[in-house]
UniProtKB/TrEMBL annotation:
This is ROK family protein. Signal peptide: none annotated. It comes from Danxiaibacter flavus. InterPro entries: ATPase_NBD, ROK. Gene3D superfamilies: 3.30.420.40. It comes from the Bacteria. Coiled coil: none annotated. Belongs to the ROK (NagC/XylR) family. It holds the Pfam family ROK.
Length: 312
């Protein structure tokens, strides 16, 4: 059976795995990215990780057909343009460096793209060809899978779904671009909105408020939390309805920590989307929660290899 070495590079850790073409994880681990690392240190760490996994594969006579890598950046033909949480990788041709070192096919893409691909390929989404994936956390990232393949726009510089404008009247006073889905519906935006509503109602917000806290208060029917969550649901629905009207996907998959809230989360958004999206475009679309958790990134990196083996 064919196997891939898969890496998911984050700002604090690199998660990596040995994955077969059916999505079974034969080995997985992570290594921290230390704050003092420079470009050479990061590249050296990547090579060490890949060499370690190759040694494991060789010891088990496992065939490796490629190396897939996810990075928090727009990637143009293997070149990392700007890694928001890992600037040490900026302007590095990761694909060329790793391919020259190991002589294997290498594919590099945006981490949110690969999370979406992983969910479609190996998650509970099932065998579908067209999907929109959104990961909702500190910011909002996303992916488009069209006809079973990642779509990235010209030179892979598109599908920045978090920058979809959902409220053109907003000024740039929150995270992300003014009025963007990220600025209005990320967990950061939700926390800021909740604290603002608390203050307006003469409550002193706890400085340790996070998304889980707000959801817990929402489920307890706290009025401020209900208002903040309803705002969140509304802006999520505006963005999703717009994406459905353009792409008519079979599924919209929502990941990130907030997706652990429970089924009510999708139900609230779905109810609003059904009122906003065109009936014809949304008739066959289902909105559901992601299923792979923090494994989605490296599973998507593996899927990237298996999807592109013929073009390596």
């Amino acid at each position: 059976m064919k196997h891939a070495i898969a890496l998911d590079i984050g700002g604090t850790n690199i998660k990596y795995a040995l994955v077969d073409q059916n999505g079974f994880i034969h080995f997985e681990s992570l290594k921290p990215v230390k704050s003092e690392y420079d470009k050479l240190s990061i590249v050296s760490l990547l090579k060490t990780i890949i060499r370690d996994v190759l040694n494991i594969a060789n010891a088990n006579q496992t065939e490796i057909v490629g190396i897939g890598i996810g990075v928090p950046s727009v990637v143009d033909n293997g070149v990392v343009l700007f890694a928001n949480n890992l600037p040490e990788l900026d302007n590095i041709n990761v694909k060329a460096i790793i391919k020259e070192e190991f002589g294997l096919p290498v594919f590099v893409d945006n981490d949110a793209n690969l999370m979406g691909l992983g969910e479609v390929k190996y998650g509970t989404a099932g065998s579908i060809s067209d999907a929109v994936f959104l990961t909702v956390g500190t910011g909002i990232g996303g992916a488009l899978i069209l006809n079973g393949q990642l779509y990235g726009g010209y030179r892979n510089r598109g599908t920045e779904l978090g920058f979809l404008i959902v409220d053109s009247n907003k000024s740039a006073d929150t995270c992300g671009t003014a009025g963007s889905l990220e600025a209005m519906a990320s967990v950061t935006a939700l926390i800021n909105d909740y604290k603002k509503i608390l203050a307006e109602n003469n409550h002193h917000p706890d400085t340790n408020i996070d998304g889980k806290y707000i959801i817990a208060k929402y489920l307890e029917n706290e009025p401020c939390a209900i208002t903040a969550m309803n705002n969140h649901f509304y802006y999520m629905a505006v963005g999703i309805a717009s994406l459905i009207n353009v792409f008519a996907p079979q599924k919209v998959i929502i990941g990130g920590g907030i997706s652990e809230a429970g089924d009510f989360y999708c139900e609230k958004i779905s109810a609003l989307v059904n009122k906003m999206a065109m009936k014809e475009t949304s008739e066959f679309t289902r909105i559901e929660l992601a299923s792979l958790g923090n494994k989605a990134g490296f599973l998507g990196a593996a899927a990237l290899i298996f999807n592109n083996r013929q073009t390596a």
